[in-house]
């Protein structure tokens, strides 16, 4: 009886997550979730390192980061059923610390209040259908460009974290020291993963990451010093946001930035990951369960602010899980469960070196470049905005800014060609918003 009940439960779960339609299995989804977690586990330590400079307790932020990532990923997996993991966003945490707290002199409690309000605003915009309208306004012509641009972006992140590419004041970027242990390990992982993929090994990315990690341990390259930590440390930041202070401050500018970057980073990630996974092919208003995706994102940001961290966003590292075969929400659920475990043993995740995750990002970036083949390069009115989007995402180090750049060019070209009647009012509104934002960013450095 118990065995029959267990089989029935498993069958219902497989139907709910559409295993048959997506051509996936439990083994594939679990490996994909583990792969995604390994490629984004760095956030458990990088996020506290950044937010602690605002005066927030590092241990508390570590716990809040794990909790927010667990809640967001589980929501996306269970409710929206997409293989997309969420966690506090890089870039937005830096804006929180250096622009809001240090630059504007805003107390971190008040800044958390602004993040919370941006999450509530997201929830209201989703409930009213406005976010869906914004997503639907993105030209389908730019879908492939976003996917390819994100591919370049995550490859750049991987190359930089491995030390293969470094900053250079004269040329912006340059070749790093390939004799350095981190770079050598990353090259080893890159070649191993590429060979395994060419041999059609399903778990190639995960095997490559684990093998590189093992080699790093064997050669003494991993320098891991666990710090005192307890999940109970979260009490120092949980529900410490000052909502009244944020309202009295009139922090519209702060809330707007959180809203803008979160919205378009998430849209860009959704388009890129969903397209790579083959989860949708039509227009953006045909994306299955779009409402659930947006609700999951909004609730995750509210939960993150309540726990004590900056805005929660969809992670482009989810592409690694998709490349490993993840197609359903089970991938995100596995990632979320691993973050939940990390809440209690966070220091252990610090043993995963960048040299082990960098090859995965570079490989996945190369896979996502296949989307560029779908861009009609012979049609300038589409090709040029697509190129600006694809190039802008890595060079501006922002999915949101790259998408805004290409989106603006797409609109202006059509207007100047006299095809302004083909552009709907929402596209005009967003274009005006993008132009004003670029002007504001330029004016304020």
Overall shape = globular
What is the helical fraction, as a range of percent? Answer: 55-70%
**Main beta sheet: strand number and arrangement?**
2 strands, antiparallel
Low-confidence stretches: none
Count of individual helical segments: 20
Instruction: Give the SSE order as H and E letters.
Output: HHHHHEHHHHEEHHHHHEHHHHHH
The average pLDDT is: 85
Q: Write out the strand line-up for the largest beta sheet, numbering strands in chain order.
A: 1-4
Estimated share of beta-strand residues: under 5%
Extended strand count:
4
- Radius of gyration over all CA atoms, rounded: 21 Å
N- to C-terminal separation?
Answer: 68 Å
Structural class: mainly alpha
When the domains are counted, the total is 1
Tell me which oligomeric state these chains represent. Answer: single chain
